[in-house]
Design goal:
alpha/beta; 10 helices; 8-stranded mixed β-sheet; two-stranded antiparallel ribbon; 273 residues
Length: 273
């Protein structure tokens, strides 16, 4: 397994929950890993390849990559996720900041699912990914794209505005357009093979409190400035405002829009004959 060197703390760590509740993440939001299986197919890991999973979470997709015969190195920026992934994979998982990491030896591919949108300085991330790849290596991932969860964010903002708290809302994600991200990849020396951008309304069927559960898990920074005594009121109002758009036949949905891509570095040019 390749060693990952990293800064001890992520500069944007305040944008994340204080610590992920891994058990609740896996039980209520298991769709994150389940829907990421298609990204593994796009990666198409081969036996003997070395793949770095950037933002591995609790390690479900890392394990799937390993099952296909690849050697895996897994990194994540959250200590609770690192502990869970280490237990699942039976090998050390590295605590690393996706903006600034290096590996001891280049890898064949870097993979990422549902993590890159938490890294709000994408040029730095792509520079680190490029540095981790061998010539000819590939970068495959999926993240939130432009207008991802727009209806959720709009409902939170409107609920906060009723209490004159909208200005304190902090949006912690980077959701690019396909053109924007393709341009960033090209500026870092990648050749873009494919970019898909698609709507994926996602059932929150395991969330007993509906949209409130989603906000508390993923959107803590949206309401982090709300006084404790007002939070339940605000969350209830968020649900009321979002219900016409995001609840159908009694089922809540998150209005996800995803950006899925595959890119590669060109192999080193051979010497002229």
């Amino acid at each position: 397994m390749s060693t990952v060197y990293h800064q001890p703390s992520a500069p944007n760590v305040a944008d994340h929950p204080a610590a992920w509740d891994v058990a609740r993440y896996d039980s209520q939001f298991g769709f994150v890993a389940a829907l990421g299986a298609g990204v593994v197919d796009l990666l198409d890991p081969q036996p003997g390849e070395h793949v770095l999973d950037l933002g591995c979470g609790s390690g479900h997709l890392t394990a799937l990559i390993a099952e296909r015969g690849a050697t895996v190195t897994a990194v994540d920026g959250d200590p609770a996720m690192v502990a869970a992934a280490t237990a699942r994979l039976g090998q050390p998982v590295q605590l690393a900041d996706g903006h600034d990491f290096t590996v001891a030896e280049p890898v064949d591919a870097v993979f990422s699912n549902a993590a890159l949108h938490w890294m709000t300085r994408p040029a730095e991330v792509l520079a680190s990914v490029r540095g981790a790849l061998r010539p000819g290596g590939r970068f495959v991932g999926e993240m939130g794209g432009a207008r991802n969860i727009a209806a959720i964010v709009d409902a939170v903002r409107a609920a906060l505005a009723e209490h004159e708290l909208a200005e304190g809302m902090r949006v912690p994600w980077y959701f690019p357009t396909p053109a924007e991200y393709a341009t960033l990849l090209e500026r870092q020396g990648f050749t873009v093979d494919s970019v898909e951008y698609f709507a994926r309304p996602t059932e929150l069927s395991a969330c007993s409190e509906g949209l409130a559960d989603w906000v508390l898990m993923f959107g803590a920074s949206l309401i982090g400035h709300v006084p404790e005594e007002l939070r339940a009121t605000v969350l209830t109002r968020v649900g009321e405002l979002a219900e016409p758009t995001l609840r159908r036949e009694g089922i809540w949905y998150a209005d996800y829009r995803r950006l899925r891509f595959r890119a590669h570095l060109e192999p080193k040019e051979s010497a002229p004959l």
